């Protein structure tokens, strides 16, 4: 087991954020800075190596740690992570452990059996295909098993939207007395402005009448294939379209094969994970997002900040709470998603000026709903300590 750092002096309430990723998240940066400002001692521990998340957190005044172990799917891996977390909480005399995402949540709920630290679980997913029996997608058996363990052992679960709450209530047989809704919030000033030179370059390299974008992990539940098939059909019919695809995931090879077999290399470009994603959003015209696994998606909010139009699925995450069809975005049906994507693209293609109006309204609605304020922080502290 790696050596733990020396214990630090306890000053007030200590909050440990437990997380499986090192990618930057403005939501965490917002929360960390507000908690530090209020005098809380904030620690971050990840199950992966240090990255930009650690760097940004240190700048705020967060003490950061990493415990990266290979073989993440083995029983030994989980046992070593559980042991490490137990020792970490005891050594640092952590008052509250805020665990985020399924991977670390599983470790946290088992570790809580051996520590006095209060453990609060933050869940950020739900497979919304369960709401519609006509949609058939293979669900990972281990993920379902992990959810059951977490649901049974967790003493308090925080979810970001009524969509996740209602899905858990209807399909997972959870004791809902321990599940609470706490919406996401952001300091939108922490987002960097687009690099206009890079935006111009992206537009020049992808010149077309309508530039589409997808920003989602490459997994079946994000349904890239449906969007690709629609784009292929419209291109064959003579429409001047291109699509930029950001992020990584296990479906990449299958998606690249689709592109190659259909000679779409110039029209659909797989760009991988990008730290300059804001530039690509600013260069694009419309986000296509037929995802069925969401809690409260950040990409849609980021597109809103860029005054860009979005197309999302109804009743997934919190989309239906603030996206109004053809007022500040496009709503796609769960049953006829491909047809709705095609109709949306055609409408955007034929009424391009409409996209600007939708994007402007989306920016206003996103800022009004999700911009951080003192009430958000009060609610978060209440959720952690009570």
Overview of this protein structure:
The protein is built from 15 helices and 13 strands. It is α/β, with parallel strands linked by helices. The protein folds into two domains: 14-187 and 371-385, Rossmann fold (3-Layer(aba) Sandwich), CATH 3.40.50.2000; 192-370, Rossmann fold. The strands form two sheets. A seven-stranded parallel β-sheet has the order 3-2-1-4-5-6-7. The protein has a six-stranded parallel β-sheet with strand order 10-9-8-11-12-13, with helices on both faces. α3 packs across α4 (102-111) and α4 crosses α5 (141-153). The chain is globular and about 65 Å long. The two termini are 33 Å apart. 40% of the residues are buried.
Question: Summed up, what is this model?
Answer:
This protein is 44% helix and 16% strand. The chain is α/β, with parallel strands linked by helices and 386 residues long.
List the helices and strands and how they pair.
Elements: E1 14-19, H1 26-37, E2 41-46, H2 52-60, E3 63-66, H3 75-91, E4 96-100, H4 102-111, E5 118-122, H5 141-153, E6 157-159, H6 162-171, E7 179-181, H7 196-205, E8 210-215, H8 224-236, E9 241-246, H9 252-261, E10 268-272, H10 277-283, E11 286-289, H11 298-305, E12 309-313, H12 319-322, E13 330-332, H13 337-350, H14 352-370, H15 374-385
Parallel strand pairs: 1-2, 1-4, 2-3, 4-5, 5-6, 6-7, 8-9, 8-11, 9-10, 11-12, 12-13
């Amino acid at each position: 087991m790696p050596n733990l750092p020396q214990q630090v002096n306890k000053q007030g309430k200590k909050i440990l954020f437990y997380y499986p990723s090192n990618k930057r998240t403005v939501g965490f940066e917002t929360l960390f800075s507000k908690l530090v400002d209020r005098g809380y001692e904030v620690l971050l521990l990840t199950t992966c190596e240090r990255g930009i998340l650690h760097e940004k957190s240190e700048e705020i005044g967060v003490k950061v740690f990493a415990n990266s172990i290979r073989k993440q799917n083995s029983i030994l891996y989980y046992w070593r992570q559980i042991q490490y977390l137990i020792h970490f909480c005891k050594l640092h005399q952590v008052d509250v452990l805020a665990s985020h995402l399924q991977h670390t949540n599983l470790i946290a709920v088992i570790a809580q059996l051996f520590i006095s630290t209060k453990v609060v679980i933050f869940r950020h997913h739900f497979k919304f295909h369960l709401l519609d029996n006509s949609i058939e997608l293979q669900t990972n058996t281990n993920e379902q098993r992990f959810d059951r363990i977490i649901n049974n052992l967790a003493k308090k679960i925080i979810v970001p939207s009524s969509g996740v709450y209602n899905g858990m209530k209807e399909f997972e047989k959870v004791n809902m007395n321990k599940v609470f809704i706490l919406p996401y919030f952001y300091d939108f000033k922490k987002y960097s402005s687009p690099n206009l030179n890079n935006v111009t370059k992206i537009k020049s390299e992808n010149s077309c009448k309508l530039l589409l974008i997808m920003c989602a992990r490459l997994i079946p539940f994000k349904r890239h294939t449906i969007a690709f098939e629609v784009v292929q059909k419209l291109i064959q019919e003579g429409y001047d379209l291109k699509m930029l695809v950001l992020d990584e995931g296990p479906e990449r090879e299958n998606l690249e094969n689709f592109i190659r077999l259909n000679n779409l290399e110039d029209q659909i470009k797989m760009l991988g994970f990008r730290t300059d994603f804001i530039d690509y959003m600013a260069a694009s015209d419309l986000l296509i997002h037929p995802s069925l696994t969401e809690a409260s998606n950040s990409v849609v909010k980021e597109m809103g900040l860029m005054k860009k139009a979005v197309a999302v699925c109804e009743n997934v995450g919190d989309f239906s709470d603030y996206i109004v069809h053809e007022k500040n975005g496009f709503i796609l049906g769960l049953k006829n998603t491909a047809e709705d994507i095609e109709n949306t693209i055609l409408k955007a293609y034929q009424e391009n000026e409409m996209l600007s109006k939708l994007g402007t309204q989306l920016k206003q609605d996103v800022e009004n709903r999700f911009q951080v304020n003192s009430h958000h922080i009060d609610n978060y502290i209440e959720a952690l300590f009570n």
